[in-house]
Specification:
Layout lengths: L10 H36 L2 H35 L9 H13 L3 H21 L2 H8 L15 H35 L14 H28 L4 E2 L4 E2 L3 H32 L4 H30 L3 H4 L1 H14 L6 E4 L29 H9 L5 E2 L5 E7 L2 E9 L1 E2 L11 H7 L3 E2 L1 E5 L3 E2 L3 E2 L27 E2 L11 E3 L9 E5 L5 E4 L7 E2 L3 H11 L3 H4 L8 E3 L4 H8 L4 E2 L4 E5 L2 E12 L8 E2 H5 L15 E2 L1 E11 L5 E5 L5 H9 L13 H4 L6 H14 L4 H6 L4 E2 L16 E5 L8 E10 L7 E8 L2 E8 L9 H10 L1 H10 L4 E5 L3 E5 L2 E12 L7 E9 L5 E5 L2 H17 L28 H23 L2 H25 L30
Parallel strand pairs: 3-29
Antiparallel strand pairs: 1-2, 4-7, 5-6, 6-9, 8-12, 10-11, 13-17, 14-15, 16-17, 18-20, 19-20, 20-23, 21-22, 23-24, 25-27, 26-27, 27-28, 28-29, 30-32, 31-32, 32-33, 33-34
Helix pairs in contact: 1-2, 1-14, 2-4, 2-5, 2-6, 5-6, 6-7, 7-8, 8-9, 25-26
């Protein structure tokens, strides 16, 4: 009995479906078209159209090529299955049921197969177009000049060719599997494969077709085994916690893969021959496939497991020594560790040397300003308007100030659109009035004034300059201070600039000294012209904002500035780069330029250790002013590009930093050969502001913690491994201490360098193991390690911080700085080698809990040696080092060391009557009165909320306390022993009239 055909859709239903499908396609194509068009206009603005066209054309070609190939393979095999259908089918209930489907498919079989091909090709093409980077590298591959230690093949094969070959193999497997499934379905529907009825279950034609596809699959498996042999050099070796093939892999699994490749070829031939020419059934092909599976388990699984278990594990150290050595060497090459210089540093001197107080290379350059803590200070002291912001962390650079190169803390006064009021946030104000920030603010990192504030040398706006807190003579001048491109801007913060009437300026520029406002009109070359109606309509669709068309603020001279974050801008121009998480500004040629470090990376360098970029670069500052990197697994990295973004007009330039990097050469070739500016053409004034990139340094530092050990036996035991300590003031947070930029001179360095430094400790311990620094010498990166002896007793950062803050005398002074209305915050703990010992410096800030308060640097913690014996808490670094030297001299003569200068704690009780108790003199009475007056002024300053006054009051209190103590010493009889714990001078002191108050009390 013939089944009735499937019901047909009504005409109205077909029209409805067609309209809905048409609207969907129209909106989809419109969205793609608008995005592509606006991207072209943006790339045209930045003059990198070759990147846009190169990526777009490559993606289209991959989409078409892979999609078309997949569609033809799948649909073509299904068509072949239809053509091979039997003309006569045995009568059975199964065939009667299938007749219903045949009657629907057969009249329009071509359309059905074309639809299936389109769907398969669409998904395959969409997947393929994401591989544009792999294809570009494959097509423009370079030689590394380094060969892998097992197959003697250039590393370039693994980096450039292997990833795309593996992808093509995956496409082949997918195509064959889909072809088998589709062909089997067609054969079944049209009777070539039957489950019921008399005779064979499969026609000869169907058997030949399907077995050929299975044979092709097995042949692809043979190719996979060959590629797997290369992939073994990239896989993880659990036995030694390293990457690359180990003993069992090379001696058991590697030959097994080769044997399995030959077996696969034999099985493929057997499937075709026995199923079609000899036996003409599926018994022997099935047996062949089963034997291949058994061989894969036995030869490729059980045998290598046996070798690993019974031969390698009993003597892992000896068996894996060669392969550990391979991994060490490959990792050091791949991550640029090979050229690192390791120098021994005994750090045997535990007593402050006398020249510490007169040093002119290290001590004067010690950075006291913490870029994270003083960000609030910059914002509140230099903000000018509430919508300006300096971000959560400032940046460190170096400039010539007063004829001397100094560390400088720099911040950009940017627009923070989140801080605009509701009235200011309407579309006109947000996008046409508040368009830019103004000025770079900077202060020497080693100098504080006015009660703990930075000594600003740039960034002031008229009446914002404070007497004694800044310098008009020592200015870092930017001829164009306006900031249209900055870190505070996201994708929604586009700006529309340009006016019809040049005399009518509407952009808010900056406040004037008289309380007014100055306006401005953008005159830069950057921005996309949106003067025409078509352009305005285009961007109205893109931003889904009708004001582009309706608002009178958009006129014939208007330009649109978007993608204004420097990091996003470089990422769009160079999508093949991994960008550092900490861009920084610099004044170059009178203009503010953002400098962004770009890395070329790879994940297929043979035997190199693989790391996750996000995990390796995370520390205490991640997400607090530095961008978190993506979770990308890599085993090769180079700082190959230094990119700049002009803060005014958005001009992007890519400078070649590593002229030997094969990966950058391949990308440059892929985009026409002139994508990056050669290293030889980098301007000298720009190169002077290059700094060792932070994220690269973190990766190298973390790897050096293990791979500084180059002896395979020692590496296996892991006894000399290091680790990065946690943040010293928050050791339980689990967050690593960030590296810090310093202008300083380490042992064996000819002169002070601007370098990124970090301390490391032995694994599982807290004492200091080494100091690692990264810098540029003659334009070349230099990674250096000062390694301390294994038996060193010198404390590490966490121990030093605990020793200093738990010192009884210092703890009392710190308690005086802390109250219910104020809190102590600790800055960078700097570890500095000096005088064959270790000098530690940690600034101490005090922040009131009052509204609009910001941290003020009030004291400096300083220690020398092991971090416990010689400690000082001083008003300044100069006082601190002098006090350490004085303590060393006292210890050398047997006299107990005095407390640090500025000690405002209550002194010990007066000795019993009859001892050398100070007599009450007029000088002592006058000094006590000054102390009381200073205490009253501190309280009054805290109540007023004037932090400049508060800083001056604290300084006056310190001076009064020092005068009081001097009067005590003058009034104390000389006879009698010196009690332990007496302050500087060695004489006991009578208590002052009243203890000094805590800040905020």
């Amino acid at each position: 009995m013939r089944s009735s055909p499937l019901p047909r859709m009504s005409r109205r239903g077909r029209v409805t479906v067609g309209v809905l499908l048409g609207v969907f396609l129209l909106l989809t194509l419109l969205g793609w078209g608008v995005q592509a068009w606006t991207d072209w206009l943006w790339f045209q603005e930045v003059d990198y159209t070759e990147v846009f066209s190169g990526v777009l054309v490559t993606r289209i070609l991959l989409f078409v090529a892979v999609g078309l190939a997949m569609a033809l393979l799948v649909a073509g095999n299904m068509w072949l299955a239809y053509r091979l259908r039997p003309l006569l089918r045995p009568n059975s209930p199964e065939q009667v049921t299938l007749e219903r489907y045949r009657s629907v498919l057969a009249p329009r079989i071509g359309a059905w197969l074309a639809a299936i091909g389109v769907v398969v090709g669409l998904f395959a093409g969409l997947s393929a177009q994401t591989r544009w980077g792999q294809w570009m590298l494959f097509r423009n591959s370079q030689n590394f000049g380094v060969r892998d230690p097992e197959f003697n093949i250039d590393v370039g094969f693994y980096v450039f060719q292997f990833p795309f070959l593996r992808y093509l193999l995956g496409v082949g497997f997918t195509a064959v599997v889909l072809a088998v499934i589709g062909s089997l379905a067609v054969h079944y529907i049209f009777g070539g494969v039957r489950l019921q009825g008399v005779g064979d279950r499969m026609t000869n034609a169907a058997r030949a077709h399907l077995t050929t596809l299975v044979a092709v699959f097995v042949l692809l498996k043979a190719v996979a085994y060959v590629l797997d042999r290369r992939a073994m050099l990239l896989e993880f070796n659990e036995g030694v916690d390293l990457y690359g093939a180990g003993y069992a892999d090379i001696n058991a699994l590697l030959p097994a893969k080769e044997i399995l490749a030959y077996i696969s070829i034999v099985v493929a031939v057997a499937i075709i021959v026995f199923s079609n020419a000899v036996m003409r059934n599926l018994v022997w092909p099935g047996i062949s496939l089963a034997l291949l599976g058994i061989s894969a388990v036995a030869i490729g699984g059980i045998y290598p497991w046996a070798v690993q278990t019974f031969e390698v594990r009993p003597s892992v150290r000896d068996k894996e020594a060669l392969y550990i050595e391979r991994s060490i060497q490959a990792t050091r090459d791949a991550f640029g560790l090979t050229e690192s210089k390791v120098s021994p540093y005994s750090a045997s001197n535990l007593r402050p040397p006398e020249n510490l107080a007169t040093d002119t290379t290290v001590v004067p350059n010690v950075r006291l300003l913490d870029p994270q803590l003083v960000s609030e200070t910059y914002t509140l002291a230099q903000q000018v308007r509430s919508f300006y912001d300096f971000g959560e962390k400032l940046d460190i650079d170096r400039y010539q100030i007063g004829g001397k190169t100094q560390d400088v803390v720099v911040g950009m006064r940017e627009i923070n659109y989140l801080k605009l009021t509701d009235q200011q946030s309407n579309w006109i104000n947000r996008h046409t009035i508040y368009t830019h920030g103004y000025g770079m603010v900077s202060a020497p990192a080693n100098r504080v004034v006015c009660g703990g504030q930075p000594y600003f040398v740039s960034g002031f706006l008229g009446d914002q300059r404070q007497e004694g807190c800044s310098s008009a003579a020592e200015q870092i001048v930017a001829e164009q201070p306006r900031i249209y491109y900055g870190e505070q801007m996201d994708d929604a913060d586009y700006a529309i600039v340009g006016q019809t009437d040049p005399e009518r300026h509407v952009e808010f520029d900056r406040p004037t000294g008289e309380g007014g406002e100055q306006t401005y009109t953008y005159t830069g070359a950057g921005g996309v012209d949106i003067g025409s109606f078509g352009r305005r309509l285009l961007y109205s669709i893109k931003e889904q904002e009708p004001n582009f068309v309706l608002s009178g603020a958009v006129n014939d001279n208007s330009k649109l500035l978007y993608v204004r974050n420097p990091r996003d801008r470089v990422e769009k121009v160079a999508p093949f780069l991994t960008l550092d998480g900490d861009p920084y500004p610099a004044v170059i040629g009178g203009r503010i330029q953002w400098i962004v470090d770009g890395y070329t990376t790879a994940a297929t360098y043979p035997y190199a250790h693989q790391v996750n970029l996000q995990e390796e670069t995370a520390d205490e500052l991640t997400g607090l002013g530095t961008f978190e990197l993506a979770r990308e697994n890599i085993n090769y990295i180079r700082n190959s590009v230094k990119a700049t973004v002009d803060a005014y007009d958005g001009t992007v330039k890519l400078y070649q930093m590593d002229d030997k990097d094969p990966v950058l050469k391949a990308w440059n070739k892929a985009f026409g050969g002139d994508l990056v500016i050669p290293k030889s053409e980098i301007p000298a004034d720009l190169a002077a502001h290059f700094r060792y990139p932070a994220d690269l340094f973190k990766v190298q530092r973390n790897l050096l913690a293990r791979f500084h050990v180059t002896n395979p036996g020692e590496f296996f035991t892991g006894q000399d491994f290091w680790e990065v300590p946690n943040a010293p003031d928050a050791p339980d947070s689990g967050k690593r201490q960030p590296p810090y930029y310093l202008l300083t001179q380490f042992p064996e360095q000819e002169a002070p360098r601007f370098q990124l430094t970090s301390a490391v400790t032995p694994a599982g311990r807290q004492n200091l193991a080494a100091l690692i620094s990264g810098s540029y010498v003659d334009g070349q990166p230099r990674l250096e390690v000062l390694e301390l002896p294994d038996q060193t007793a010198v404390s590490g950062p966490v121990q030093v911080h605990q020793n200093m803050t738990n010192n009884a005398t210092i703890r009392q002074q710190l308690n005086l700085l802390t109250s219910n209305q104020a809190q102590v915050q600790y800055g960078n703990l700097l570890s500095l080698p000096f005088g064959n010992g270790m000098l530690y410096v940690e600034p101490v800030y005090v922040k009131s809990n009052q509204q609009n308060a910001y941290p003020l640097l009030q004291r400096v913690l300083i220690s020398y040696g092991d971090g416990g014996q010689y400690v000082a808490l001083a008003n300044s670094l100069e006082e601190g080092v002098k006090d350490l030297v004085r303590q060393a001299k006292e210890a050398n003569t047997g006299t107990p060391p005095p407390p640090p200068p500025g000690d405002n704690t209550n002194p010990p009780p007066s000795p019993p009557p009859g001892d050398n108790t100070p007599s009450l003199t007029p000088e002592l009475t006058a000094a006590a009165t000054k102390v009381q007056t200073a205490i009253a002024e501190v309280k009054a300053a805290q109540t007023s909320g004037d932090f400049e006054r508060y800083g001056r009051a604290l300084k006056a209190l310190d001076d009064a306390m020092n005068e009081f103590q001097a009067a005590q010493r003058a009034a104390t009889p000389a006879a009698g022993p010196t009690p332990t714990g007496s302050p500087a001078g060695g004489t006991p002191t009578a208590p002052p009239p009243t203890a000094p108050p805590s800040p905020g009390s």
